[in-house]
Design brief:
One of its GO terms (cellular component) is cytosol. GO terms for molecular function: aminopeptidase activity; metallopeptidase activity. This is Zinc-dependent peptidase. With about 260 residues, the chain is α/β, with parallel strands linked by helices. The protein has a domain of about 90 residues: 3-Layer(aba) Sandwich (Collagenase (Catalytic Domain)). Helices cover about 50% and strands about 10% of the residues. It is built from 10 helices and 6 strands, in the order αααβαβββββαααααα. It has a 4-stranded mixed β-sheet. About 5% of the residues have low confidence.
């Protein structure tokens, strides 16, 4: 009964808040890998994007005003992760904050000697547990960057990871998935990436993934959607686990489109 009510509510929202076809075509142009989606997938993504924008607030900070095109680009990439899941994966928070460029939050930590340190480090994105997603407007368009770098996918992958609490690289798996298979695949790949990064060797995905298991999951998610063949070649077991979790196969999708 609750599911039917939810679907009825969503249909009502979509009837009132459809995305203009011209505006949607501009989104697909700004996010090139969306072209690999089938017509049916793009239609579903368009609906998810409209529902996302109905539920979430996207606004600027630091003097930045978010235009409609940027709002759509952010929401579409966020919804790509849940294309075959559900919008409820983004529950319990409502806000996306967009700065014009990198922002510099201030953090404090206490070292082993009990000394308090204050750190200010520029960031392009950040996700808070049950809080906002924070993004840099200069980094939300994937076409502006070389390689599989995508701050929107990265931060929204953290949001999925945080459904189990802190971002630790272990999002809530589906009942038909095996946690031990996930752990084995990710631990082996994470340690390989750390070894390569520590030795100054080339890394198949962004070396930032070597920072922690949570960052590895987010970086691997970037590659999964934006450079799937790279991830599949480097870490096939990780790719397979992500294929099961996201219920998508971007590598097969891009081959079919090509």
């Amino acid at each position: 009964m609750l599911r039917r009510v939810r679907e009825w509510q969503r249909r009502r929202v979509l009837a009132r808040h459809r995305i203009d076809d011209v505006a949607w075509a501009a989104v697909v142009e700004r996010v090139p890998f969306l072209a690999d989606l089938s017509e049916q997938e793009r239609a579903r993504l368009k609906d998810w994007t409209a529902l996302f924008l109905h539920q979430k607030q996207i606004h600027g900070a630091g003097g930045y005003e978010v235009d409609e095109g940027t709002r759509l680009v952010i929401a579409a990439q966020a919804c790509l992760l849940i294309l075959n899941l559900d919008l409820d994966y983004y529950r319990d928070w409502v806000e996306v904050i967009v700065y014009p460029d990198e922002f510099v939050p201030q953090r404090e930590y206490v070292d082993e000697a009990g000394v308090v340190h204050v750190v200010r480090e520029p960031l392009a994105g950040e996700s808070w547990l049950q809080g906002p997603v924070i993004l840099s407007a200069a980094d939300v368009d994937p076409a502006w960057h070389e390689g599989p770098l995508n701050v929107v996918i990265h931060e929204f992958a953290h949001k999925l990871d945080m459904l189990n609490g802190d971002a630790n690289g272990m999002p809530p798996l589906h009942p038909d998935m095996e946690p031990e298979a996930w752990k084995k695949a990710f631990e082996q790949a994470y340690h390989d990436l750390r070894r390569r990064a520590e030795r100054g060797l080339p890394t198949p995905i962004d070396a930032y993934g070597a920072e922690s298991p949570g960052e590895f999951f987010a970086v691997a998610s970037e590659a999964f959607f934006q450079a799937p063949h790279t991830l599949l070649a480097a870490y096939p077991a990780v790719y397979e686990q992500m294929r099961q979790f996201y219920r998508q196969d971007p590598a097969a999708r891009s081959r079919a489109h090509g």
